[in-house]
Write a structure and sequence with these properties.
278 residues, alpha/beta, 2 domains, 6-stranded mixed β-sheet, 10 helices, 15% strand, globular
């Protein structure tokens, strides 16, 4: 058997948890995360197609989207790199999912409960818990305004190294963290959905075409990280340059020579001369 693909890569996650042939996997995962009063018994998957453009576009999203038997609209996103905008990003996508439910002229009563689940491969929130969930509540009494909005954050690095599998959520997290672990091997023997997920992961890992698609997606994800890091670096350089120009302007106003301003600001002679000319 070839080395297993990483189920935390969005392409693999979507192929397993957004698989129309294996709906029990997603149902089990959602019941484990949301813990609804009325168990989810079926799901209708949306946007299941993964095109070549999706795979190779470093800024595309391969989320799992579904509507549950409880009429909940669900979005699950895997995030591998901290882009420092996760909360605003989640609120934006939640608002789009919520508003897109209404057609023109339809009543607001048609709007259904909308849930975003974010699985993060990095630490993000201040809490020590690996799973945090949020709804709209009164700031003083903690009284809940509505359950129509629900946001979940699951931070994989906060999982204990040797985690006790005490419920299905910890079971699914162990599967994502290390599908070859002894804990997952034991779960396979007892939990049908984990067994299905592992079989699908093995199938993907042994399929040459799927492996090629995975590698294209991994490259796109790495290109995205590189692009974000370059943008951040460029932004920092621009910020430093602006500071240096301001320093140079102030020093010139004070009557310092070009050589003195160059030494103090670290700008070139040509850059100082351009400041003087402008």
């Amino acid at each position: 058997m070839r080395q297993l693909l990483d189920p935390k890569v969005d392409f693999v996650f979507k192929k397993i948890f957004g698989n129309e042939k294996h709906p029990k996997i997603l149902i089990s995962f959602l019941n484990a995360v949301i813990k609804p009063e009325n168990k989810i018994v079926s799901v209708t998957l949306k946007d299941t197609e993964i095109t070549k453009d999706n795979l190779e576009d470093k800024f595309s999203r391969l989320d799992v989207k579904a509507v549950t038997s409880n009429d909940e609209h669900i979005n699950i996103e895997i995030q591998l790199k901290n882009e420092h905008n996760m909360i605003r990003r989640t609120l934006y996508y939640w608002s789009r999912m919520y508003s897109e439910q209404l057609g023109e002229g339809q009543n607001y009563n048609k709007l259904s409960r909308t849930i975003c689940i974010n699985i993060l491969k990095f630490k993000y929130l201040k809490t020590e818990k690996y799973h945090s969930s949020y709804r709209l509540k009164d700031m003083q009494t903690n009284e809940e305004l509505t359950d129509v909005q629900e946001l979940h954050f699951i931070e994989i690095p906060k999982l204990p190294k040797h985690m006790e599998i005490k419920d299905m959520l910890t079971g699914w997290m162990e599967f994502l963290k290390d599908p070859n672990s002894e804990e997952v091997l034991e779960l396979e023997m007892n939990v049908e959905e984990i067994q299905e997920a592992k079989k699908e992961l093995i199938r993907l890992s042994n399929d040459e075409k799927e492996r090629e698609r995975y590698e294209r997606r991994e490259k796109a994800n790495k290109d995205r990280v590189s692009a974000l890091e370059k943008a951040k670096s460029d932004g920092e350089e621009i910020g430093e340059k602006k500071k240096a120009i301001e320093i140079a302007k102030n020093l010139l106003k004070m009557g310092l020579s070009i050589d003195q301003v160059v030494e103090a600001s670290k700008l070139s002679v040509e850059e100082i001369k351009r400041i003087i000319e402008n």
